């Protein structure tokens, strides 16, 4: 369990993390979401002692990270996939890490196999593709077989196969009872991967909820109807006990999703239709709505893009 209490980080006049309090529980993939600059990386860096909080604290099973002996055995982190020494081979990089944490060298071969880079492990990491670097970063995080894993934007720049691989790996690790804390700025990615969501904006906590609750609250579906006979339309629907709401643009919305029934009712009422279409609010849109007041930089007019599909 990772516990953040009023965790705060200020860089000069920038309040990067603002009194964050939440818990990250074992056995779950917890998605850490927020727009660019929300404070996700800063928070993760403070969890593993790479940045000092300006206020508040974060503890891992009750202890500060810098008080944990052999920390790679307790917490694995991939915070910057490019953070290896480019002149070393992948294998040497991992051996050096293993040695400094008293982890046996044979574990290096195990993790190289696990992340699928055993064949290129003798090459210098300078020439690694982004995908290979991400895998090496994950290998380093897994080295001490830690019960807690922190991954900062692990799918960035990966091809679809790589994305699927990381997703499956995280799910399997959570099922083994580990604590998985993974950041992303993509709701769509988290919707597939995470059990729990923590959303921040401008350093502040905006939501701490299960994925199921988030979907329940935000995955609204409705039917959009256009007709040149609005009065007949309302009468026909009302006769069948269906409530329709008129939108500003003259279209109608019926909450819920039985398109066939609504179509049948309107056909029986002899109502001419120009459109009858099922609509679903996307989770991405719910996320954008939740965070739009806290976006650091946004191009005008992009906030509601891709609203409904
Ligand atoms: N070392 C630093 N010095 C000064 N400001 C910093 C530093 N690190 C981060 N910041 C600022 O703190 C804020 C939070 O940045 P952070 O990188 O934690 O956000 P993020 O949510 O990880 O963003 P992204 O999705 O773009 O990676 C930003 O305004 C950023 O410019």
Automatic annotation (TrEMBL):
GO terms for molecular function: ATP binding; ATP hydrolysis activity. PROSITE patterns: ABC_TRANSPORTER_1 (PS00211), ABC_TRANSPORTER_2 (PS50893). Residues 2-227 form the ABC transporter domain. It comes from the Bacteria. Pfam families: ABC_tran. SUPFAM superfamilies: P-loop containing nucleoside triphosphate hydrolases. Keywords: ATP-binding, Nucleotide-binding, Transport. Gene3D superfamilies: P-loop containing nucleotide triphosphate hydrolases (3.40.50.300). CDD domains: ABC_BcrA_bacitracin_resist. Belongs to the ABC transporter superfamily. PANTHER family: ABC TRANSPORTER, ATP-BINDING PROTEIN. This is ABC transporter ATP-binding protein. It comes from Actinomadura harenae.
């Amino acid at each position: 369990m990772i516990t953040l209490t009023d965790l705060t980080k200020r860089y000069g006049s920038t309040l990067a993390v603002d009194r964050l309090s939440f818990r990250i529980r074992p056995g779950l993939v917890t998605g850490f979401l927020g727009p660019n600059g929300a404070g996700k990386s800063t928070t993760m860096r403070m969890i593993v002692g790479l940045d000092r909080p300006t206020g508040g604290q974060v503890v891992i099973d009750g202890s500060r990270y810098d008080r944990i002996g052999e920390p790679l055995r307790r917490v694995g982190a991939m915070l910057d996939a490019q953070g290896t020494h480019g002149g070393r081979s992948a294998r040497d990089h991992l051996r050096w890490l293993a040695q400094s944490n008293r982890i046996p060298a044979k574990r290096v071969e195990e993790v190289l196999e696990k992340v699928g880079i055993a064949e290129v492990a003798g090459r210098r990491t300078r020439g690694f593709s982004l995908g290979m670097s991400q895998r090496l970063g994950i290998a380093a995080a897994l080295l001490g077989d830690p019960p807690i894993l922190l991954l900062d934007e692990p799918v960035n720049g990966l091809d679809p196969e790589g994305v699927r691989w990381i997703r499956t790996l995280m799910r399997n690790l959570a099922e083994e009872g580990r604590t998985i804390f993974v950041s992303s700025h993509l709701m769509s990615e988290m919707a597939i991967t995470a059990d729990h969501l923590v959303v921040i904006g401008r350093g502040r906590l905006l939501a701490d909820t299960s994925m199921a609750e988030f979907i329940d609250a935000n995955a609204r579906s409705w039917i959009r109807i256009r007709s040149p006979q609005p009065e007949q339309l309302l009468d026909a629907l009302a006769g069948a006990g269906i409530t329709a709401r008129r939108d500003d643009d003259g279209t109608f919305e019926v909450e819920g999703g039985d398109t066939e029934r609504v179509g049948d009712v309107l056909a029986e009422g002899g109502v001419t239709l120009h459109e009858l279409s099922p609509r679903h609010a996307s989770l991405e849109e719910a996320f954008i709505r939740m965070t739009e007041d806290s976006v650091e930089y946004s191009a005008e007019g992009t906030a509601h893009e891709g609203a409904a599909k």
